[in-house]
Amino acid sequence: MSIPRLLVVDDDPEMRSMMTQLLRQNSFIALPASSEREIRAHLSNGRIDLILLDVMLGDENGIDICARLRREQDVPIILVSALSADHQRMAGYEVGADDYIAKPFNPQLMLARVRAVMQRARRSSSLAYRRRTRTFRFDGWVFDGKRDDLHSPEGYLVALSQRETALLKVLLANPHIPLTRDEIVTALDVTGDSDKSEAQGRAIDMLVGRLRSKIETNPKDPQMLRTERGVGYIFAADISVEE
Amino acid sequence: MSIPRLLVVDDDPEMRSMMTQLLRQNSFIALPASSEREIRAHLSNGRIDLILLDVMLGDENGIDICARLRREQDVPIILVSALSADHQRMAGYEVGADDYIAKPFNPQLMLARVRAVMQRARRSSSLAYRRRTRTFRFDGWVFDGKRDDLHSPEGYLVALSQRETALLKVLLANPHIPLTRDEIVTALDVTGDSDKSEAQGRAIDMLVGRLRSKIETNPKDPQMLRTERGVGYIFAADISVEE
DNA sequence: CACTTCTGTTACAGCGTGTTACGTTGACAT
DNA sequence: ATGTCAACGTAACACGCTGTAACAGAAGTG
Where's the DNA-binding part (chains A, B) (predicted)? Predict the structure, then answer.
């Protein structure tokens, strides 16, 4: 990971040097600029990881500059300004700024916010949507995590419905912990429609029953998917996770 | 672009419903949660685009939860808290939070910050696709984004209709994300005629069925082009993109 | 024009899932 | 023990969602 290169844009020389020094003392490369022309020169010249852009720049306006840059570039931009009213902040976010820091600011907090935005940019771009698929094993069963079925200890393939799969995932994510029905319902709720959650009735019990009938040797006397009377359900098997 | 799915984590029911309602009124899917267990259940169960995480959660602590999640997941996290001192904010950023919003907050400003973080995440992660996408590979298949056909794992050339190609592109551009029929229709609708979208009936289902019959080994049990009952369709194959 | 190919509509069957009803079990008080 | 009551299991049912065959235009091609 190379040293981050930041652009510090402010028309006040004092402020500019304060910020560049602060950044340099904290292992950043800080390049000063004071106009849109200079910003564009830097952008076309070399890599810029983030721009700290003052809103009031004499005759120019940081908000407008930000809007224009956004139309062409993905470079992270943090607006800095003495204008700290909510509507002014929102104007900044509206034109695509990643953050809006009010002056005067706590130097350490500013560094933290700069790091946060850069980390988000880096994290997302490096591993784009890598899906986390883990394989679970419990009591001879093998659950792939990305298919709606599982392998029985005897080698048969047992098909699960999507909802059964979802339930199994929730249970596997919380091994040996009793889960209340409400918790399971909210976890399975795809829509976020809270009204629905209350009307669910005994749906979870049915779901559990159906899953039991598929994976328990003796569904009448469940060993893995146990009932915690008055509480909910608990997945009580030794689970090993791979990858 | 599919509807963002947010997790709202707060132990105060009033606060939680205020936030979920606010988000829902602004075209987000807001899923309520109140414990780390519920968060993990949701994360293992479905896509979550961003977590709004309260810092003080009864016996649990949002900072610690955030730190733990960060070690495993890339999901964007915004901390929300009544603790607004600088050192408390910095503690949040230190554990990898993307933003830190102090309570009480201006609802519109909160929305703006949520959008900012999500846009940053999306912008970066979609970089791969923004570049003139050339060639996609998935499960042995090769799709040359500019032709209306694709190469099967066995080397045969399978012809696709225009509309099938368009559907495939939409799916490839949104890997592992369930797309509603409306979303697919609007994405396929080049004219922008919104009336048409409603009159589409089951066209998407037919289209999906026909594409399945061409690219799924066993169209009766689709592995790549899966159905999310009550939601829509999702492309669930590992995709690699070249150039 | 005939012919082919693509695409949307309709109808129907099958399946997944929630609800209801009823029987069983377990906890607790008497 | 025995009764009581709430919690739980599950069979039966109802309903909505989805897959798909069959058909009908639409659009291209010669």
Answer: 133-237
At the fourth CATH level, the homologous superfamily of domain B5-125 is Response regulator (3.40.50.2300)
Beta carbons of A170 and B45 less than 8 Å apart:
yes
- The per-residue pLDDT for range A76-92, each reduced to its tens digit, is 999 999 999 999 999 99
Distance of CA B16 to the CA centre of its chain: 22
Contacts of residue A153, defined as CB under 8 A and 6 or more positions apart, other chains included, come to: A139, A140, A141
pLDDT at B124: 64
Q: What is the residue-wise DSSP string for B20-40?
A: HHHHHTTT-EEEEE-SHHHHH
Best CATH choice for the domain A5-126 from the list 3.30.70.1270, 3.30.830.10, 2.102.10.10, 3.40.50.2300: 3.40.50.2300
Cβ-Cβ contacts under 8 Å between A and B: the total is: 140
- As a rounded value in angstroms, the CA-to-C1' distance for A229 and C28 is 14
Q: Domain segments of chain A: what residues?
A: 5-126, 135-242
Interface of B with A in 127-146 (CB under 8 A): 127-128
Smallest Cα distance from A149 to chain B, Å: 11
Dump pLDDT digits (tens) for A160-217. 999 999 999 999 988 899 999 988 988 887 666 655 555 577 999 999 999 999 999 9
